[in-house]
Amino acid sequence: MQASAPITQDVMTIPRKTDTGGKTNLVGLTREQLRDTLIAGGTPEKQAKMRVNQIWQWIYQWGVRDFAEMTNLSKAYRAELDEKFTVSIPEMVSKQVSADGTRKYLVRIAGGHEVEVVYIPETDRGTLCVSSQVGCTLTCSFCHTGTQKLVRNLTAAEIVGQIMMARDDLGEWPEPGVGTGESGPRLLSNIVLMGMGEPLYNFENVRDAMKIAMDGEGISLSRRRITLSTSGVVPEIARTAEEIGCMLAVSFHATTDEVRDKLVPINKRWNIAELLEALKAYPKLSNSERITFEYVMLKDVNDTDSDARRLVKLIQGIPAKINLIPFNEWPGSPYQRSDWDRIEAFADIIYKAGYASPIRTPRGEDIMAACGQLKSATERARKSRAQIEAEVNQGE
Ligand code: SAH
Ligand code: SF4
User: Fold this and answer.
1) Largest interatomic CA distance in the chain
2) In this structure, are residues 89 and 3 in contact, taking their beta carbons and an 8 Å threshold?
3) What's the CA-to-centroid distance between 374 and ligand 1, angstroms?
4) Under a CB-based contact definition with an 8 Å cutoff, are residues 374 and 340 in contact?
């Protein structure tokens, strides 16, 4: 791991260019969109396929942002590209490194909005927790992001750009000519769509960004190393299997509709029975093994032995693992974390019923980077709703 000694609360300001200066950004385009964009910009149709392959590899395999460095293209063509296009990712405004090595990035996107991205190093992998929206339209009562109104959906460029930014910071792009994965174990090996926002309410952009991340001629992450977490947007679940094919996690959190209505209000729209129905089909449709059921442990709310037993019954017949998440507190949060012996007793019941029941170790709590603690700094600074709305209108 190239990270130097962990430093807590170290805030760095790293200015980077994001202004596209009126040029079209090539980041975030699917291969087909890139082809059309190049042709519209004057690339002869006959050459387009080859040019897409070349440019794609420079951008996503080797992390090159400057057309001048794309040395297998003629000098004249590079100059032409530079006149019309840009290769831009969101600007990293600051980085905090936790005592446990977790890195939290604050990222600024067009319109001046900010989202948080978290990198979690582990011994055998490194996971990037990516955001899909600024804020969230949903209002799960235990989630910090849920207290921030939705400002806007992120574009595909802004989503895949978070991965590219993290690879920049980790120094993980291979040298031009070297294949991805040839330079040893990957620091950034897994993606979880568990940052700010509900990914299935921004389906197309999330899909396009993940397709880019999975493309074998670029970032080349296997679909099994990408996990999308949803609060339960039932109509989009089958589509996730068909059009993305990544692993699925679902924020389950309760075993009765009465409690789930309060914790995850989308349950009033699609209740537990409807959610389970959609989940049953997922592993087959996506050719993936198991669904992860996320379950936040809230003291005296959803953590009894009866809850554990009900949970096991509900998920019967679904290939599953249950990820228990000790509640992470945030300023003003209305719940408490269940006691450790309670969490362990709950895990034990699930384990004895034949399911893996890992307890998620909270990471980066000292820098407010743990699950459910993310919220953009703009909001934390208590900007008024009117101010935020005015910015959105300005930025789009
Ligand atoms: N919107 C998506 C993904 C983002 S949240 C979703 O809801 O699934 C990622 C996970 O963190 C979800 O399971 C969410 O319920 C959980 N979470 C939210 N707030 C939390 C908190 N304060 N403590 C622990 N987990 C939390
Ligand atoms: Fe939104 Fe997920 Fe938080 Fe619920 S848990 S408010 S869906 S980010």
Assistant:
1) 70
2) no
3) 10
4) no
Work out which ligand 2 atom sits closest to the CA atom of 137: 1
Nearest-CA neighbor of 248 among 266, 261, 231?
A: 231
Query: Does the annotation count 116 as an active-site position?
Result: yes
Is 18 within the bounds of a domain? no
pLDDT digits (tens, 9 = 90+) for 274-285: 999 999 999 887
CA distance 108 to 35: 28
Query: Which residues on adjacent β-strands are paired with residue 230?
Result: 250
d(CA 210, CA 244): 7
In a shared domain, residues 82 and 160: no
pLDDT category of residue 5 using cuts at 50, 70 and 90: very low
Alpha helix ranges (H) inside 43-192: 45-56, 75-84, 156-170
Helix residue ranges per DSSP H, the chain: 31-40, 45-56, 75-84, 156-170, 203-214, 237-243, 257-263, 272-286, 305-314, 340-352, 377-380, 385-395
Q: What is the Cα–Cα distance from 76 to 89, expressed in whole angstroms?
A: 25
**Residues 96 and 86: beta-carbon distance below 8 Å:** no
Q: In this prediction, what percent of the chain has a pLDDT beyond 90?
A: 74
Same domain membership, residue 278 and residue 196 = yes
- Ligand 1 centroid – CA 299 distance (Å): 16
Tokens at 240, concatenated: 């996730």
- CA 153 from centre of chain: 13
Beta bridge partners of 227: 192, 247
**Higher pLDDT among residues 369 and 12, named by residue:** 369
Question: Best of 246, 371, 374, 375 to mutate for ligand 1, by most ligand atoms within 8 A of CB?
Answer: 371
| Residues 191 and 226: beta-carbon distance below 8 Å | yes
Residue 263 to residue 277: CA distance in whole angstroms? 20
Total of domains in the chain? 2
Known catalytic residue at 136: no
For residue 28, give its domain range. Answer: 24-86
Residue 213 alpha carbon to ligand 1 centre in Å: 23
Indicate if 78 and 100 belong to the same structural domain. no
**98 with 203, same domain?**
yes
